[in-house]
Write a structure and sequence with these properties.
Chain lengths: 160, 418, 418, 160
C-alpha cells in the first residue's frame, strides 16, 4: 500500500488524460481517397497493426495523413497525435520530426525538470512510455510506419 | 530432488501444495516493488531450484560430449543424457527409449515430422488436416511443406466456445489425408481436444495423428500408449524444465521408416563419400552434439513433476482455474474468450474498450505477469474478431492469493480507463 | 564476469594464465583418484563458473519467454537474449545483428544453409564442394541434399600432413559449384585451412563459401568481415559456453533472399490460412521458443574469452601445443597424425600395435581425458588407413603440467602392452 | 603414488595377460569359405568393426566361426575367445551362451570371491571390463554380432 503513490505516478504519466482521450477519440482515423501512399506497421509483440494513408502535394507538403488499425491506448493515441502534428509539414521536415521523436523516445528520461522532449506540449504526453521500456514500440509504431510510407516500404515491424 | 512438501499425496491439498512455491526462485521475487504473481506459464514455466541446480551440477561436474568418448566424463555425460531419455520414456509411458527423440523444442519436433515423415508423401492430391485452434508452430511447418509440394492444408473449424468441432474434423478425414496434426490443449484458450475420438477415427482411415502436446504435459498425466497418438511433441520450458530442449515421441515403426532429418555427427554409423549408413533409433534423428545440460534439466523437471504427482497438479490447477473464472465473471466489462467444456490452466479474456496490451502493462506495474496479444495463434484471434486477448495461465506454483491479486489488479485497470 | 586473473595483458603470460584454471569447476576435480587432466576440449570445452552462474542467474531471476510479452520478466529475458546476440556480433565483427542467427549448434547451422540456401538451387548439373578433412556435420547434410536433388558432392583432396591441397580445391571451383563448405580448423587434426585464398578464388567465380568454424572460434580471433566468408557456423559448447546453442553467421543480403527453414512462432509476422508473412532477419530463421538460457551462457562465455584476450589464448595454446608435439616425438612407437604447417590446439597420434581405445582407457584410469576413435571424421581416418587415432586437444585452462602428466600417462600405456 | 596399487590392480584385471595375448595373436582370424553367414558389428564409440563368418551344419552345429576386423585389445581378444568357445556348440546353445555372457558382463561384479561368471576360466578373463563401464561394449561386440548373424541381421551397433 505504501507504494501506491510512486506507482500511480508513473502509471499516470503513461496514461495521461490526453493519451486516454486520444485513444478513445482518435483524430484522422480512416482512409484517404485520391490513391494515397499506404504503409502498414505491425508490432508482433501484441499484434498491433496500423495502416497509414498519406498524400503529398506538388510542393512536397504532407497534405493528407490518416490512419486505421487496432492497437493499445498508447499506439492509437500516438498515431492520432502523429497525424495532427505532421500534417502540413514539408516532407523532409516531417521525416526529420518523426526520426527525432523516435530517437528521443528511445533515450533515457531527461533529468532536468521542465526540459521538454519536443517543442509540442501534446507530443510530450508520449514521454510517459520512457518508464515502460516494453511500451516504447507502441508509441513509435505509427511514426516508424510514416517513415516507411515516405520510403515506399510497405510493411514495417517494430520487432528488433 | 524432492519438492519441498512432505510426501506424495493422492488427493491434492492446496495448503500443502502451497509449500512447493518456495522451490521456485523466479516466483519468489519482487517485480515493480510487488511480490511477483506469475500467470504466464503457458508461454514459459518457471524452474524449481532442483532443476536449476541439476543443470549447474551437470555443468560443473559431469560435462563432456556424449556417446563418442571413453573417458569418465564422457561416460558420465552420456549417462545423464540417456537417463533423462529413460525418465521421459516412463513419464509418458512410451514403449521404449527408441521412441523418444530429443529435439530443441515442440517447434523443432513438428518440423522434423513435417520434413521427414510427411513431405516425401505429399503431392497435389494429398492433404494435411489441422484445426483452427493451432499455435503457429503447428500451422506454419505444414504451410511450408504444402507450398513446396502442392498438397493442401485443410483446417477443421472451431465453435464459439473455442473448441474443435470434433465431428466436423472427423468428417474431413479420408485416405488422402497424410497426417492429422492437432494440439492436445490450446495455448490461447486452454481447450482440451477430444483426442480419443479423433485418433480412433483417423486410425480407421489409417491416417496417423500428430499431437502438439506443448500445453498438456505439465498439466495432466500423459499415457501415450493409452492415447495411441502416433507422434507427440512437447517442450522442456513449458514443464518446469529449461529452454532449448524438447521431445518428439514417435511410434517406433513410423520412426524406423522415416529418413533422417538433419545430417551430422551422432546420427550416422559410417560416413563414406560413396554413401553413409545411418545410426539406429533414436540417434538417427539426433544430429550433432545434443543439448546435454538441457536434457539433464528436463530429467530433473520430470522428477519434480512425478514427486508432486500429476494427479495432484491437475486437481490443484483446476481449483484455481475455477476460482479465476468465477472471479473474472464478477467484473463488469470482462468477457471470457474460450469457454470449452474441458479447459485446463488457461483463461483468455477481454475488457470492453481496453486493449489487452494496456491491461498487461497496468498489471505488470502491480507485479502481475500475464500475456497479451495473439499468443501465436492468430487464426484463433481472427475467429473471435479480436486483435488479441489478455491471457492468464496457471502452473503448479500458483495459489489462491495469486488469483486474488490478479482480480484486484484488474480493478485498477478499469479505474485508469474509467 | 571477470576471469580470475588481474587484467587484460597483451602478451600472454603462462604463469598468470594459469590462474584462469581455477575458474573451471569441472577441471578442478579428481577423476579415478587423480586430478583431472582434460585434453578433450575439441569435443566439448568446459565452462567457467562465470558461465554456469550466469545461466543459473538467468533461470532464477529473469526467465520468461522472449519477444512476445510485455511484462517485466519477458522484457528482461528478451534483453538477455538480444544482448547476447549483440555480444556475438561484436565478437566476430559482423556488420550487424541481422547477420547473427541463433541455432542449436554448428550442425543445425549447416543444415539450415543446406536446406534454405542450397537445396532450392540444386539440380543434377550443380555441385557442392567440400574437402576430405570435414567433420561429419559438414559432409552428411550435403550428401542428403545431393541425394534429394541429383546434384554432386565433390571432395577436395588432402595431403599426407593432413592439409587441404589448396590449389587443387581452388581448381575444382567453377560456376556450377553452388557452395564451397570447408572447416576453418580440422577437429581431427588441428589443421588450419588457407581460407583467404579459397574464399578469394570462390568469390571470383561468384561462389559463396560456408566456413565450419566449430574448432576455430575459441582459439583465434575471428574477424568475419576481414575473412569475407559468406556463412560461418559455430557451437557454444566448443567455446566455453553451454550445449544446445550455436550460431549461423550469414551475410545479410544472402540471408535476406533465403526462404525460412523451420516454421513456427517468432519467425512470422502474420499467420493466415491464406498465407503467412515472415518476420524480418534474424527472426525469420528462429522458429519457436529459442534456447534463452543457452544464449545467456554463450554471451557470458564470450565475455570471458574477451577478458582473457583472444591473442593471449592463441599464444598460450600454441606454446602448449608445441611442447606436446615435442614431447610426443620422444616416445618410441608414437606416430603423429596430421602435421599441418599451421596447426591449432589439437594433435592426433597412434602408438604402434596399440589400439587408440586402449590408450584412452589407460589414460582415463590415470585421470587423463583424451578422445579416441574416428572423431566424427571417418574420411580422414580412411585417408590415413586408420580405424581411429588418439587425440589430445587443448584449451584456455590447460597448462604445462597437463602435458607432462599426459606424456607420463602414455609411458604406462606402453608398459602395459610391452 | 600411494594410489598406484589399487589403480594397477583393476587395470591389470582389464588387461590380463590372456587378453593381451589374444589381442596380439587372435585365433580364427580370417574369412570362411563355403558361402558362410556374415554379419558386421560396429561400435561407433571408437570405430571398432568386426565381421563374423559362420557355418552351421545340418545338425545345427556351429561348424565354422571366424572373424575379421579392427578393434581394441578387448574387442579383438573377446572375438578370439568367442570363436574358440562357440565353435562346435549347437546353434541354440551358442545363442544362449552369447546371451548369458552379454547379460553377465552387464551385471555388477559378484561380491563373493571365487564365484565364476561363466564356467570357462578363459572367458572369465573378460570380467575385468566390469570396472570399466565404457569398455563393456567392446567385450560384447563380437558376441552381439554373433547373435545378429544367427538372426540374419546384417549390421549391429552397440550404440544404445
Ligand atoms: C569441425 C567441426 N564441425 C562441426 C562440428 C559439429 O558441432 P556440433 O556437434 O556442436 O553441432 C564439430 C564438433 O563436433 C566440429 O569439430
Ligand atoms: C500449443 C503450442 N504448440 C507449440 C508451441 C511451440 O513451442 P516451442 O516454442 O517451445 O517450440 C507452443 C508454445 O509456444 C504451444 O503453446
Amino acid at each position: 500500500m505504501k507504494r501506491d503513490n510512486s506507482e500511480n505516478k508513473s502509471l499516470k504519466e503513461l496514461y495521461r488524460q490526453l493519451i486516454i482521450h486520444h485513444a478513445k477519440n482518435p483524430l484522422n482515423f480512416g482512409k484517404l481517397s485520391n490513391n494515397p501512399i499506404r504503409a502498414e506497421g505491425i508490432n508482433p509483440l501484441c499484434g498491433d497493426k496500423i495502416r497509414i494513408y498519406l498524400n503529398i502535394n506538388e510542393a512536397d507538403t504532407i497534405e493528407g495523413l490518416t490512419f486505421e488499425g487496432t492497437g493499445c491506448a498508447i499506439s492509437i493515441a500516438s498515431a492520432s497525435l502523429m497525424t495532427t502534428t505532421l500534417r502540413n509539414m514539408k516532407k523532409y521536415q516531417a521525416n526529420q520530426y518523426a526520426l527525432n521523436l523516435i530517437s528521443n523516445l528511445n533515450e533515457p528520461k531527461s533529468q532536468e525538470a521542465g526540459q521538454l522532449m519536443m517543442d509540442s506540449q501534446e507530443i510530450n504526453a508520449l514521454e510517459g512510455v520512457k518508464d515502460f521500456p516494453s511500451r516504447i514500440k507502441c508509441a513509435t509504431l505509427s511514426w516508424q510506419t510514416f517513415i516507411s510510407a515516405l520510403n515506399n516500404k510497405k510493411i514495417t515491424t517494430t520487432e528488433k | 530432488m524432492n519438492p519441498s512438501f512432505s510426501e506424495k499425496n493422492e488427493t491434492a491439498d492446496i495448503g500443502e501444495f502451497g509449500l512447493l512455491r518456495k522451490d521456485f526462485p523466479t516466483i519468489n521475487q519482487e517485480i515493480n516493488e510487488h511480490p511477483l504473481v506469475y500467470l504466464d506459464s503457458a508461454a514459459s514455466s518457471q524452474m524449481p531450484q532442483q532443476v536449476i541446480d541439476e543443470i549447474s551440477r551437470y555443468q560443473s561436474q559431469d560435462h563432456s560430449n556424449v556417446h563418442r568418448g571413453i573417458h569418465t566424463l564422457s561416460h558420465r555425460a552420456t549417462e545423464v543424457y540417456e537417463t533423462s531419455r529413460q525418465n521421459i520414456c516412463e513419464f509418458i509411458n512410451a514403449k521404449n527409449t527408441n521412441e523418444i527423440i530429443f529435439t530443441s523444442g515442440t517447434t523443432d519436433s513438428i518440423n522434423l515430422v513435417a520434413h521427414s515423415y510427411c513431405k516425401p508423401k505429399l503431392d497435389p492430391s494429398k492433404k494435411i488436416l489441422i484445426s483452427h485452434l493451432e499455435h503457429h508452430s503447428n500451422i506454419v511447418p505444414w504451410q511450408l511443406i504444402c507450398e513446396q509440394t502442392g498438397a493442401s492444408l485443410i483446417v477443421a473449424p472451431i465453435d464459439n466456445n473455442g473448441q474443435i468441432i470434433t465431428e466436423q474434423l472427423i468428417g474431413m478425414i479420408d485416405s488422402n489425408v497424410v497426417l492429422v496434426a492437432i494440439s492436445h490443449i490450446s495455448n490461447a484458450l486452454g481447450s482440451v481436444t477430444s483426442l480419443n475420438k479423433i485418433i480412433d477415427a483417423a486410425h480407421q482411415h489409417e491416417v496417423p495423428v500428430l499431437v502438439d502436446g506443448a500445453q498438456a504435459v505439465s498439466h495432466m498425466k500423459i499415457d501415450i500408449q493409452a492415447l495411441n497418438a502416433d507422434f507427440y511433441a512437447f517442450s522442456g520450458h513449458k514443464m518446469l524444465g529449461p529452454t532449448g530442449i524438447g521431445i518428439l515421441y514417435g511410434k517406433e515403426h513410423l520412426l524406423e521408416d522415416m529418413p533422417p532429418y538433419q545430417g551430422g555427427g551422432d546420427m550416422i554409423l559410417e560416413v563414406k563419400f560413396t554413401g553413409t549408413v545411418y545410426n539406429d533409433l533414436p540417434y538417427k534423428f539426433e544430429a550433432g552434439t545434443p543439448n546435454i545440460s538441457g536434457a539433464a534439466g528436463l530429467g530433473a523437471a520430470i522428477d519434480y513433476l512425478n514427486q508432486a504427482g500429476m494427479h495432484n497438479i491437475e486437481v490443484h490447477e483446476n481449483i484455481l482455474l475455477n476460482k479465476m473464472i468465477t472471479d473474472l465473471q464478477t467484473i463488469d466489462g470482462v468477457e471470457l474468450i474460450g469457454r470449452a467444456e474441458n479447459q485446463v490452466a488457461v483463461q483468455s479474456f477481454t475488457i470492453k474498450d481496453i486493449h489487452s496490451h494496456d491491461i498487461g502493462t497496468i498489471l505488470d506495474h502491480q507485479g502481475i505477469a500475464i500475456r497479451t496479444g495473439h499468443h501465436c495463434a492468430m487464426p484463433v484471434m481472427e475467429f473471435f474478431g479480436l486483435p488479441g486477448t489478455a491471457r492468464a495461465s496457471l502452473s503448479i506454483y500458483n495459489n489462491e492469493e495469486d488469483v486474488d491479486r490478479f482480480i484486484k489488479g484488474l480493478d485498477k485497470v478499469i479505474e485508469i480507463f474509467a
